[in-house]
Design brief:
With 498 residues, this protein is an alpha/beta fold. The protein has 3 domains: 3-279, Rossmann fold; 283-435, Isoleucyl-tRNA Synthetase, Domain 1 (Orthogonal Bundle), CATH 1.10.730; 443-497, no CATH class. It is 47% helix and 14% strand. It has 17 helices and 15 strands. The strands form 5 sheets. A 4-stranded parallel β-sheet has the order 4-3-9-10. Strand 11 (282-284) and strand 12 form a beta hairpin. Helix 13 runs antiparallel to helix 14. The longest helix is centred in the C-terminal third of the chain and has 23 residues, at 336-358. It is elongated. The protein starts with a helix and ends with a strand.
Length: 498
């Protein structure tokens, strides 16, 4: 039986607020769309948490053997300041402030985004479409919705008719749990909103004002697409009218994802996505991250330690490991104390991984009870990830494996059959590398320090053979001061780096 068939996955679906058994549209193929960044500023940690959460989801599906098509867009047009219907495009505004062309801004911050995610060892998406590269698809989608009578044009702008959509069987508000009447009653008036039939109607296409830089020709005059439209158009083009999973941050649930559902149903007659997943927010020292209060942290500040809120610098892998220790739907709080603990845990995990790679199987006495414990750990690793991608529980199991690995190293004895030992090694390595994307950052893993340490260990061995115990102890003590712990056994001397 394949890993796909033997693992029953349950996903918390934001659409109904419950965990549902995952049933792909076209097994073993799987389509997932994640809302990418609006590239007008440096990517912040909240963004990174979302992208890394879904990187783990994609990695796990691939680990099980699914053929994953992962689409993550770049928003490079059509996104107005404060997500309002009126005002200045975020990218155009930044271009004006930095005295650059809008596409220079897009290029600058797209490169930063890619660089940061590469440091975090995130997999690149299968397809990374841009909003500006899919203007034709967006215009065609607007035409279809207009033809179906679920949108209307006013002075060169086109708006989605939420009230009519609901009257014809739609359910605007189904994702966020909002009631259409409450929306109408609670909506505040906005400048320029008088041309709409109802306050909750949203823009599919906006007429460009004379000063608006980014504009395209359309049947309704020069303008630009509404922010919500791009994801609907690109999701449909690359994943079909109905696909498996759509992910994003919790802040996108309303109005962005709510509008995507309405647009998809209005255009294609089916609900566009089967499972909606949302990652929760980040806090810093117990408070919500906010530019206005200065309670913010950028990835490069974490890596360099250049922030007064941090005790020191933390490597990308330590930060990634830290994020894994909270469930993606839970609020995650950054603090130096928590990062310090994660650093110790990460090092312990990677040391065990290295020790396991150096452990050669030797037949001996097999303990059935120990074998069962190991098999239970392996099963629990999959069970926890199958339960809505519960990374903290899975990591707890990996540390149970660490204890087992260290015990085998200490005793220089493997009390498992070769089959179970190989399963332990494959599962432990597979979850660390393939599922969680964690790789060693130890400089000695490039082989240079490895060789230097082996040379010193041999010099110490020779000194002991010559009864030069003073030199032998000096080598051991100096290495210990540098964080290298030597361990002597009948088989020879090994080392770990603290």
């Amino acid at each position: 039986m394949s890993k796909i068939d033997s693992n029953q996955i349950f996903i918390y679906n934001s659409l109904n607020g419950e965990k549902e058994e995952f049933k792909p549209v076209s097994k073993p193929n799987l389509g997932i769309y994640v809302c990418g960044p609006t590239v007008y500023s440096y990517v912040h940690l909240g963004n990174c948490r979302t992208f890394l959460s879904f990187d783990n989801v994609v990695r796990y599906f691939k680990f099980l053997g699914y053929n994953v098509r992962y689409v993550r867009n770049i928003t490079d047009a059509g996104h107005l300041v404060d997500d309002a219907e009126q005002g200045e495009d975020k990218i155009s505004k930044k271009a004006r402030l930095e005295k650059l062309e809008p596409m220079e801004i897009v290029q600058k911050y797209t490169l930063d985004f890619h660089d940061v995610l590469k440091k975090f060892n995130a997999l690149p998406p299968s397809i990374e479409p841009t909003a500006t590269g899919h203007i034709i698809e967006q215009i065609n989608m607007v035409k279809t919705i207009l033809d179906k009578g679920l949108a209307y044009e006013v002075n060169g702008s086109v708006y989605f008719d939420v009230k009519k959509y609901n009257e014809e069987g739609g359910n605007y508000g189904e994702l966020s749990g909002r009631n259409i009447d409450e929306l109408m009653a609670g909506s505040r008036a906005l400048d320029g909103q008088s041309e709409k039939k109802n306050p909750q109607d949203f823009a599919l296409w906006k007429k460009a004002s004379p000063e608006h830089i980014m504009r395209w020709d359309s049947p309704w005059g020069e303008g630009f697409p509404g922010w919500h439209l791009e994801c609907s158009a690109m999701g449909t083009k690359y994943l079909g009218e109905q696909f498996d999973i759509h992910g994003g941050g919790m802040d996108l649930k309303f109005p962005h994802h709510e509008c995507e559902i309405a647009q998809g149903k209005a255009c294609n007659g089916v609900s566009p996505v089967n499972y909606w997943m949302h990652a929760n927010m980040l806090t810093l020292n117990g408070q919500k991250m906010s530019k206005s209060t200065g309670n913010t942290l950028l990835p490069h500040e974490l890596f360099s330690g250049d922030n007064s809120l941090l005790e020191k610098a933390y490597s990308p892998m330590v930060v990634r490991f830290f994020m894994l220790q909270a469930h993606y739907r839970s609020v995650l709080d950054f603090s130096s104390e928590a990062l310090n603990a994660s650093e110790k845990g990460f090092n312990k995990l990677m040391e065990a991984k290295k020790a396991l790679s150096q452990l050669e199987y030797k037949s001996g006495t097999v303990s059935e009870s120990e074998e069962q414990k190991v098999l239970d750990m392996i099963a629990a690793s999959y069970a926890n990830m199958n339960d809505d991608f519960n990374t903290p529980k899975t990591i707890a199991v990996l540390f149970e494996m660490v204890s087992k690995i260290n015990k085998m190293v200490t005793n220089n004895s493997i009390d498992l059959s070769e089959k179970v030992f190989n399963e332990l090694r494959a599962t432990f390595n597979g979850f660390i590398e393939d599922v969680f994307g964690l790789v060693s950052e130890n400089k000695n893993d490039n082989g240079v320090l490895d060789g230097a340490l082996e040379l010193l260990i041999n010099m110490r061995k020779e000194a002991k053979q010559n009864k030069d115990y003073a030199l032998s102890d000096q080598i051991r003590d100096k290495l210990s001061e540098l964080g290298v712990q030597l361990k002597d056994s009948k088989e020879g001397t090994t080392y770990t780096i603290k």
